[in-house]
């Protein structure tokens, strides 16, 4: 395995954020993210608009990442990029740029699985962050994914359970839309929930066998509940917003924690991490910390900056691929659908 000083340029363009980062081995030197505000008015990400914005953003974002890192492109050891999963148009922008740059500089190309990268973000070296010990479990929760993954060593993943329909982030955003909250609604539910009673309005939890999840039934239950209450009182949402948000958030956290407890019991693994955009949620973080005390788990919660889509997590995953000499072929295509084990 190579142990010299390694500089990785990482590019992330799976959805609506254009990001570039530079890592020196497992240390982040820069992590630049350009957000796309245009989607808010549509209540969700518009793929065509996202890919166009990536084309506008990628050159200045990469230039800024290199400048902030204090290195030149000639010092780079490899270029890592997100090969999938994600929006195909968005992925193609990052893929094409990464391949062109690696070819021009005659350096290795590293194709990174976006979902693996969320998990590998725990291995970014930081004085305030301790990496999990192998084997460990990771609850990966985002707008597109809800999974419990077992990681036996770096770059070796096994899915123990996953959603059979909607992802938890989608449940948050669609619940927020029912409440008249703007996109993205998940962070707003989290914000309002802090002032509400989590047991004000009980919602039933779906009965799903094993370690799999389901959120479509919960979304339907919330819809019918709100429709019924608004017929009785047109101002119901306005008068009870904090309690509604707290009750929704409490139920979602319960569903996640019940499955996580089951996974720990079945595997005997008490090294437990969370990853993905929804891992920024305050209630889920609080519940994981409580579980750490109550069940003697060793828990690992990523820094906020590494929870949402960012290039630093692509860089750390690419760094481990570089160490294992897992170089990508320049003909390897972007893949909109990609399992965490691929």
What does this structure look like?
By secondary structure, this protein is an alpha/beta fold. The chain has two domains: 7-124 and 306-323, ATPase, nucleotide binding domain (Nucleotidyltransferase, domain 5); 136-301, ATPase, nucleotide binding domain (Nucleotidyltransferase, domain 5, 2-Layer Sandwich). It contains nine helices and ten strands. It has helices spanning 47-69, 88-105, 114-120, 168-178, 186-193, 216-232, 236-267, 282-295, 311-323, and strands spanning 7-12, 18-24, 27-34, 78-84, 109-113, 136-141, 146-153, 156-162, 271-275, 298-300. Helix 4 packs antiparallel against helix 7. The chain is globular, with a radius of gyration of 20 Å. The model has no long low-confidence stretch (mean pLDDT 92).
**Spans of 5+ residues with little confidence (pLDDT < 50)?**
none
Give the number of DSSP strands: 10
CATH architecture level-2 label of the largest domain: 2-Layer Sandwich
Structural class, please? alpha/beta
């Amino acid at each position: 395995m190579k142990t010299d000083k390694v500089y990785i340029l990482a590019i992330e363009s799976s959805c609506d954020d254009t990001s570039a980062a530079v890592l020196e081995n497992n240390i982040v030197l820069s992590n630049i993210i350009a957000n796309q505000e245009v989607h808010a008015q549509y209540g969700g990400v518009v793929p065509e608009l996202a890919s166009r914005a990536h084309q506008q953003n990628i050159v200045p974002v990469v230039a800024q990442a290199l400048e902030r890192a204090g290195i030149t492109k000639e010092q780079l050891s490899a270029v890592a990029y997100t090969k999938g999963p994600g929006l195909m148009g968005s992925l193609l922008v990052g893929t094409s740029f990464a391949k062109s740059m690696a070819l021009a500089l005659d350096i290795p190309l590293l194709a990174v699985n976006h979902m693996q990268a969320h998990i590998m973000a725990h291995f970014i070296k930081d004085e305030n962050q301790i990496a999990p010990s192998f084997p460990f479990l990771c609850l990966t929760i985002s707008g597109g994914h809800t999974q419990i993954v077992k990681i036996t060593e770096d770059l070796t993943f096994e899915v123990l359970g996953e959603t059979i329909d909607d992802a938890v982030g989608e449940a948050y955003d669609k619940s927020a839309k029912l409440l008249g909250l703007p996109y993205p609604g998940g962070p707003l539910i989290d914000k309002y929930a802090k002032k509400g009673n989590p047991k004000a309005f009980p919602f039933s939890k779906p009965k799903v066998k094993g370690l799999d999840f389901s959120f479509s039934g919960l979304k339907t239950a919330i819809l019918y509940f709100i429709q019924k209450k608004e017929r009785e009182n047109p101002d119901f949402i306005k008068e009870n917003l904090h309690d509604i948000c707290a009750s929704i958030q409490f139920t979602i956290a319960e569903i996640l924690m019940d499955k996580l407890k089951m996974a720990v019991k079945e595997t005997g693994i008490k090294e437990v991490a969370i990853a993905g955009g929804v891992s920024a949620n305050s209630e889920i973080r609080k519940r994981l910390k409580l579980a750490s005390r109550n069940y003697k788990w060793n828990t690992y919660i990523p820094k906020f900056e590494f929870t949402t889509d960012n290039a630093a997590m692509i860089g750390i995953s690419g760094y481990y691929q570089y160490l294992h000499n897992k170089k990508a072929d320049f003909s390897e295509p972007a893949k909109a659908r990609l399992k965490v084990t691929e």
